[in-house]
């Protein structure tokens, strides 16, 4: 695994995995042991990066999957192919989680296909480098908030009546929620909001025995990176953390599996940091 990635850039958000070099490593690291056998999971942003890695690991562990994505058909179809290669059963659901009506239809399609819902993984995101604060227009900020936090809340609203005791909600935050990022102001704000949402939901749903937790990745090699940063910054990405390299999506996915399975049955309102040793204040 290289300590640094080649400089590259994409002009489209949230990025295309098939256009990256090298492509992120999403393949599960170990044989499955049936920890999610009989479970049904929704994963937003499941077409690539961390979402794809979580989908493949969940499939290996026996879950049936509904994979949400915005518009990246080629990446989504490849994710579906890889899930089926794992022996898994999945559907693809295309649309924008910033639209509350889409979130309702996403959950309904999952229920129509699989009959229930056990795990909601809120993972879809977008980010944009802002060199100056006055570059952030109201429309730009609204777009990022609709994807990164409104969409998470809309998905929870749509799913909640269908989640039973023991169900899991897993949200994707970020290292920047804890240490900030000067060029990703609006993105960082949404990631901090996700931590607050997780803690609030965990208290609200504790009596129902629905567990809500967060994963906060550090510098992980996903399509968002070349889609957000210029080539020179991409070439340095992840090399400043103590482990001196970016992480791969399949190195983050086990945190989601832990939070989705019975191993984490005494955890709620917590955040798992997978960040190469970046030691944020929590």
TrEMBL record:
InterPro entries: NAD(P)-bd_dom_sf, Sc_DH/Rdtase_CS, SDR_fam. It comes from the Bacteria. Keywords: Oxidoreductase. Residues 1-26 are annotated as: Disordered. The keyword Lipid biosynthesis does not apply. CDD domains: SDR_c1 (cd05355). Belongs to the short-chain dehydrogenases/reductases (SDR) family. This is NAD(P)-dependent oxidoreductase.
